Amino acid sequence: MTTHTNSLPERPDWLEDGGALPAIESLATVDRDELHPIQIEALRGMSPTRKWELVVASIQMARDVRCAVIRAARPDWTETQVQAEVSRQILLASD
Fold first, then answer.
1. Mean pLDDT computed over 30-53
2. Which of 11, 45, 64, 85 has its CA 20 to 30 A from that of 95?
3. What is the pLDDT of residue 11?
């Protein structure tokens, strides 16, 4: 029988104790009513492919920013630990 192990680290104690990193409670969303009419016009003029490219770029930018926050708070962590923590936080935010 094969058992799967979770490669993500356990939630660090410093996060539970109000540590330096702000917790991600939910993913940001934008309501269409919050967009400026010029933004709506620009989005309507984009192809589905271009819209998808912007979504992917936004996700990557958010990951990069989150990685920078974690690196600043925990400079002793390896890149693997930083990436694992970002992934874990994203998974928790989607609950």
1. 86
2. 64
3. 54
**Residue 85 burial (CB count, 10 A):** 24
Element (H, E) at 64: helix 48-73
CA distances from 63 to 24, 25, 44, 48, 67 (A): 12, 15, 27, 23, 6
Residues in Cβ contact with 76 at an 8 Å cutoff, skipping those fewer than 6 apart:
none
Contact 70, 77 (CB under 8 A): yes
Q: Are 40 and 59 in contact (CB under 8 A)?
A: no
The predicted pLDDT at position 82 comes to 96
- Structural tokens at position 18: 């109000």
